[in-house]
Known about the structure:
The complex is a heterodimer. By secondary structure, chain A is mainly α. Chain A has one domain. Chain A has helices spanning 8-22, 28-56, 78-100, 110-126, 130-148, 154-185, 190-198, 205-223, 231-238, 241-265, 278-298, 302-323, 326-357, 372-387, 393-405, 411-438, 453-463, 465-471, 473-488, 490-498; strands spanning 59-62, 73-76. In chain A, helix 3 runs parallel beside helix 13. Chain B contains three helices and no strands. The termini of chain B are far apart. The relative contact order of chain B is 0.14. By secondary structure, chain B is mostly helical. At the A-B interface, helix 5 and helix 6 of A face helix 2 and helix 3 of B.
Amino acid sequence: xxxxxxxxPLLIPLIAGFLLLLFKDFGLKFQxxxxxxxxxxxxxxxxxxxxxxxxxxxxTYILGNWExxxxxxxxxDKLSITMVLLTTVVAFFALAYxxxxxxxxxxxxxxxxxxxxxFGLNGAFLTGDLFNLFVFFEILLLASYSLLLHFSNKExxxxxxxxxxxxxxxxxxxxxxxxxxxxxxxxxxxxxxxxKISTLDKENLNIIASAGLLLLVVFGLKAAMFPLYLWLxxxxxxxxxxxAALFAIxxxxxxxxxxxxxxxxxxxxxxxxxxxxxxxxxVIGIITLIxxxxxxxxxxxxxxxxxxxxxxxxxxxxxxxxxxSKDAISGTIYYLIHSTLISGGLxxxxxxxxxxxxxxxxxxxxxxxxxxxxxxILFFGYAIAIAGLPPLSGFFGKIMxxxxxxxxxxxxxxxxxxxxxxxxxxxxxxxxxxxxFFNTLITDEPLQNNIAKHSVKIVAVLLLIAPLMxxxxxxxxxxxxxxxxxxxNVNGYVNAVLHKxxxxx
Amino acid sequence: xxxxISFVIAVLCSGGIFLxxxxxxxxxxxxxxxxxxxxxxxxxxxxxxxxxMAAILKSDVQSYADPLPQALVLTAIVISxxxxxxxxxxxxxxxxxxxxxxxxxxxxxx
Lengths: 505, 110
């Protein structure tokens, strides 16, 4: 059983999805129990896989026993299993919220799509093959299209149309990049590609460089980097809250793919191409952060603001991937865990606020919220966490990244932008909080409490992650450091997959 | 042959991009299909253009065509087919909800 552990995170949601379809007639309650138990089993399996990955560093799973680079391979290491674990945690809270608010009963097959979304995400994290990454991207996209449009209204259809079309164009670009790489290098296994690029002829250098940048565009589209972020605010703010919370991990798939594919292919052995993509990522990250901050400041709707906050956290991740040092990548992992969970929770909280105010507009005065005290405290906590103020985890993630940026030539720009953006984000959040909780209409009739009692608890529990990540900062940072060491050890990855070493550098 | 193939891919690509930029759902569906054709041809050509070569590896065959691009193209065709079907349904839904086929649900002001 333990030999098959890398494929279990794929099989569990896939089988659960099929079972949900088969036993559709057993009713909503059965579906909910099956769906939640699938995620719990997935969580336990991921924990076991994590301890295995810490033990053995790399675990490869050769599908159909076709040796790499000929067959398809799954690679389980600390980075990929951390992402799987993170997905599982976000999915658990999103699903719990969907059940508590009865969102899954509003249309057909919500639970099935949810499980297939997890299947696609886990596959994208675990695969060691570029074409397989494309296939899993398509699976997670197809599930995400349907989830986005689930129980749809006009606004959702419009946002969904943009999202679907831009991602279809992105898929085409992905295939062009894959084709170019295969045409020159004759392989699509990520480790084998890294091996072949290390002995690349000079005449093919530019073609591979352009294919790499084309891949960066595709991953940048997923991660919503400038100028490909315009679909994100609408899509994320118009869809239902649990789906938006799950989508908090979707942008991170792009970041993961940049770290995994570009970090391995264009690592230290790639000769002239070594880390040539990082300058692009860094500069684009800075521009994205500026645009995201403008977006946050100009948002007139709560959910729109949260969508731009997700964009801001993605751009900070892009910046730190662009800095590209061991400390920066370690900070990236820490901030990634923090920002995924917190922005997911923030979407759920925004939904609670919007539902109790019965208005998404920040410009509109409403009577006092029915559960203003609890929701207000939660908003305060989430705002501190997402803006990166002490004492919560966002602050420590940012400190790690800012500290790492000191080694980079562009450090005045990086530090200046991040700090200024943080200040503006804090001001906007404070303004939004004041409007929602203090600038209320004085009426005799307070608003009706239409929030299920568990929903607020779910959001509150998710916020606990932030102080926990501070309390256990030392073990988590040392874990992040070891992941960063693995990422820069391209030879370790190649050796684990192909049992060969890249010579020279 | 190389020139013809690259010319065909270029024409399909430019046609696809032109149609997508029209910002109306029906041309976009056509444009995405053209782009999918272009990328399929491109993937095919990446196995190098050969004549008179066996498709599958046999014991007595000395030279054979690269089978992997064919497998990739097959997968890409299936996926793009599914995606096209999805985007068509979505377009019909958008058309019926907005009474226009513009992607921003507004008519051009001329």
